[in-house]
Amino acid sequence: MTVDALTDVAGVRVGHATRTGDGWLTGTTVVLAPEGGAVAAVDVRGGGPGTKETDALDPRNVVQRVDAIVLTGGSAYGLDAASGVMAWLEERGRGVPVGPDPAHVVPVVPAACVFDLGRGGDFRARPDAATGRAAVEAAAASAPGTRVPQGCVGAGTGAAVGAMKGGVGTASVVLDAGITVAALVVANAVGSVLEPGTGALYGELLQGRVEHPSAPLHDAARRRLAQCAARNAPAPLNTTLAVVATDADLTKAQAQKLAGTAHDGIARAVRPVHLLHDGDTVFALATGARPLAPDPLALNDVLAAGADMVTRAIVRAVRAARTVETAGGTWPSYGELYGRA
To answer: Most buried pick, 45, 268, 279, 327, via CB within 10 A?
Structure first.
């Protein structure tokens, strides 16, 4: 049985740590790989990324597998959450061996952040090492194949897409070959997820099953968004993050290709993308449980599915989000603006 989430890739777990109230509107999400780690890669296309340990994922470099990936709020400050995940992994002897003692390991924990500073009202309220530890502990405590909370949780707590509330979303598919491909996204874009003429979600237009909002509803939504954008400050600095995971047996180079093509999924659901305001970053994880067919083109199905799952996950993030109002601003949800449209 699948749950249509990143956790459908056997052994992969997801944990959120969420901070709200008293000036807080932020959090951290950890994707925990199976014991022994997973092949990992990354593709960064935004003009203003905030990342950690991404160079280690270059196929030319020595690190072959990672044990966790951290997605976090707090802009570059929030990258400190990764140190809490590193400490948790070290305590369990998980990481790159660097000495004769099995306890001598260095966990490689790639991380990327979204900008949400001040959205809760306190600019200094941001994730730290304790937040990262809480998120990885939540991942480790979750049952295999469990559902993943979506919307305003973890790294999506303070996320926004334009003037509308963003969040975390996830989706998965099982290919005809039996390979699972899944994505988890933090939707936090400068660009819009809404087709301007109708208010339909770009990501759903491509899926071909859209009931367009009525013109009066769309007009009211546009007025509400304009009012909120005028009151919210400062101008948006954003980023969309994604982790695409599969149980296919991929090399680091193949995983990097998967991370790159998965950006197409962002471009289908958000316009414009990869701006100087954004730090759009996609990680890929491959657990290696299922072999690919010997034909080199067998990877194509995995690549196409990765992009599709990113698009679906962005739609789900937006639909799962709820309206948030704090001292830092107001971000109406798609549900508030358009109901079930």
So the answer is: 279
The pair phi, psi for residue 134, each rounded to 5°, is: -60, -40
Amino acid identity for residue 115 in this structure: F
pLDDT in tens, 211-256: 788 999 999 999 999 999 888 866 667 889 999 999 999 999 999 9
User: Of 228, 159, 221, whose CA–CA distance to 190 is shortest?
Assistant: 159
Smallest CA-to-CA distance from 8 within 145, 153, 166, 150 is with 145
pTM above 0.85, yes or no: yes
What would the pLDDT profile of 297-310 be if each residue is shown by its tens digit? Answer: 999 999 999 999 99
Residue 215 to residues 196, 212, 222, 327, Cα–Cα distance (Å): 11, 9, 11, 32
In degrees and rounded to multiples of 5, residue 108 shows phi and psi of: -100, 110
Dihedrals phi, psi of 210, to nearest 5 degrees: -110, 135
Give the integer Cα–Cα distance in Å for 280 and 272. Answer: 12
Instruction: Judge whether 68 and 85 are in contact, CB under 8 Å.
Output: yes
Q: At residue 84, what are phi and psi to the nearest 5 degrees?
A: -70, -35
